[in-house]
Amino acid sequence: MKQNSHNLLKELDLINFWEPFGRPIPEMRVGFREIIADQRKKHREVKLAKDVIKQVKPKTFTKPYVFSFNTINQREALIPLFEALEDQADLISENPDFTEEQLPDAFLKSESLKYSSKMLRWFYSFKGRDKEVFRSRYYNFYRRLGQYNYYRQAFERSKDYVKAFIASNDHSGLSQVGFVAARDAGIKTIYIQHASVNERFPPLKADVAFLDGENAKEKYLSSGKTNTDIHLVGAMKYDKYLKSREIDEKKELVGVCFGMVYHEVDKNFELCEKLEEMKIPFCMRFHPLMDEAIQKRFSDRGWEISSKDEKAGHFILRCGKIISGDSNILLEAIILKRQPIYFASTGENIDYYGFVKEGICKEACLTVKEVIQQYGEPFEIAVRRDRAKRYQNNLGTEFEGKGTELILNVLSRKIYNG
Question: Strand 188-192 to strand 321-324: parallel, antiparallel, or no bridges (unpaired)?
Fold first, then answer.
């Protein structure tokens, strides 16, 4: 069933329209005249690129499961299942590192032009904050509308083959586009959690959701009503690490992790200087999208930095302790039997994911001095890990390290037989 209102746009760009995310709205504001001018410009560009557009062939999927992963974190969350399904799985991605099949920009613009008249109506029909988001995000919408139109038609052509669309991000990017396109084409949708969530996340809309644990379930249910069939299976991405002998080895290396938000550069730099002064071996790990100038400031000191190719699990197992601000890697550390130290380097104990509240981490460290103090204190891994069961359902059970197996069992019952 095709979307026929401005709700389509809001669903495709959920991370910006979903107010609880609290994302700031850029200052740029498009007006009615700019929309008209942009539509005319796209018509000219499409006309000039007609040869490129003709080369895009209509897509027909011939395998029962269509996956979408577009970032390293999403890929790590889904790759165990993707590989387990072998020749039963297909992939769409807007990341050229994962697939060579990329829709040309000119083609996306040509597909989005089918919504030209609606764009003008949406300009006037949106109200309040929705209107501000529309005006500030307008120049990005052609990509999502173009992708939606293409993949909705692809799913409609493939209904005899495709059993389900699977992704691990339910609020942004091509994964979210795929959820909307598949749902509108009558294809079942499956969401697999790829990182910790909080109450600001949008309500679940997929037919089936595989969540890591009770904590995620409670937070999703608190965000709004849902008809999603929820299963708690742990996270597949930890399966191989939980079975590794290295997980029980003692390590001296300290991992200092630096994310995009809730991390203060100068304080983390000060921390590294202190570790160096104390002759404590450490390795930095930056978010893949971290500004290169910031990374260079640390690398210029000759400090070890984890490569972008090193998987988080491998990095954690190399370490004995993990220091980070608000990040899922604190949870990953305790799951893999490493001590997490929460460094609230901004000076504010935000505890975004509730790791301190739930007793997985000790109290937040607001200063470098407090980090060093906590580094030297005893830490009961077994006790803290037991508390992490609310985030990782299978810890300490017979199913620990068997998340992929559990999901495959549910798929065989729910999808093929349902």
Answer: unpaired
Q: Which domain holds residue 22?
A: 7-237
Greatest extent of the chain over all pairs of C-alpha atoms, in Å: 68
* Tens-digit pLDDT profile for residues 364-390: 999 999 999 999 999 999 999 999 999
Residue 127 and residue 89 in one domain: yes
Cα radius of gyration (the chain): 23
Same domain, 222 and 355: no
Look at residues 43, 83, 50, 46 and name the one whose alpha carbon lies nearest to residue 67: 83
Q: Quickly count: other Cβ atoms within 10 Å of residue 139's Cβ.
A: 12
pTM: 0.87
Q: Which residue, 188, 214, 237, sits at the end of a domain?
A: 237
Local structure of 223: helix, strand or coil? coil
Q: Which of 188, 220, 237 is the last residue of a domain?
A: 237
Query: Is there a single domain that holds both residue 18 and residue 91?
Result: yes
Domain count, the chain: 2
Task: State the Cα–Cα distance between residues 340 and 329, nearest whole angstrom.
Answer: 8
Q: What is the pLDDT of residues 255-295, one digit of tens each?
A: 999 988 888 999 999 999 999 999 999 999 998 888 899 99
> Which pair of structure tokens corresponds to residue 116?
């030209």
Q: Taking the CB of residue 320, how many other CB atoms lie within 10 A of it?
A: 18
